[in-house]
Amino acid sequence: MPASTEQVKLQSVEVLSDHWYTLRKVTFDLRRRDGQWQTLSREAYDRGNGAALLLYDPRRRTVVLTRQFRLPAFLNGSDDGMLIETCAGLLDGDDPETCIRREAEEETGYRVRQPRKVFEAYMSPGSVTEKLHFFIAEYAPQDRIRTGGGLAHEGEDIEVIEMPLAEALAGIGSGVIEDGKTVMLLQHVALMLQSGAG
Predict the structure, then answer these.
(1) Whole-angstrom distance, CA of residue 162 vs CA of residue 116
(2) SS3 category, 17
(3) Alpha helices in the chain (DSSP H)
(4) If you ran DSSP here, which 8-state letter would residue 119 be given?
């Protein structure tokens, strides 16, 4: 846990759950903009940091995505809980580039030649501590060295999807693609290609 600062004074930290990842209740004093102190309690879910990668082929204008079951999406109204996403994973002690090379090969079967980090972002800072490192990388059909699909012993059953970038972008508007990291990376690559930078 971080130390207190001039703006925040930590009062107490209570672990509510440590089964899958760690859920903590934190009570703290926060100095408001008017200089007054206010005592607050919030819960924060800590699952570590992660990395995400969008594979794109600038010549054929295609992208490689995955489809897999996500329980929170299912619990929140998704008909079947299946989300179309970029490949991603937790760092698990690795640096972000090592992580995303590993995850991309496990999930999609593609060897990543030259990943390029494009930005970092907190995806749900109101409740989750995770920061994602976002990457893009060019690919070609011959870069697929395995079938992909994820690791069965980790409960992964991942379908690999190659589709035109235009179709993926249309999927954002139609609701076919609802995953935040995927929307961000698709739009990043689309803007990059439109400007001629990719």
Answers:
(1) 20
(2) strand
(3) 71-75, 96-108, 165-174, 180-194
(4) E
User: Quick one: tokens of 27?
Assistant: 């009570």
Q: pLDDT category, 52, cuts 50, 70, 90? A: very high
**Token code pair at residue 13:** 């930290």
DSSP state of 144: B
User: Are residues 97 and 137 in contact, defined by beta-carbon separation less than 8 angstroms?
Assistant: no
CA distance 68 to 70: 6
What CA–CA distance (Å, rounded) separates 68 from 85?
8
Token pair for residue 119?
Answer: 């930005």
The arrangement of strands across the sheet holding 8-17 comes to 8-17, 22-31, 37-46
Are 116 and 137 spatial neighbours (Cβ–Cβ below 8 Å)? yes
Q: For the chain, report the end-to-end CA distance as a whole number of angstroms.
A: 40
CB atoms within 10 A of CB 21: 14
pLDDT in tens, 122-181: 999 999 999 999 999 999 999 999 888 877 777 678 999 999 999 999 999 999 999 999
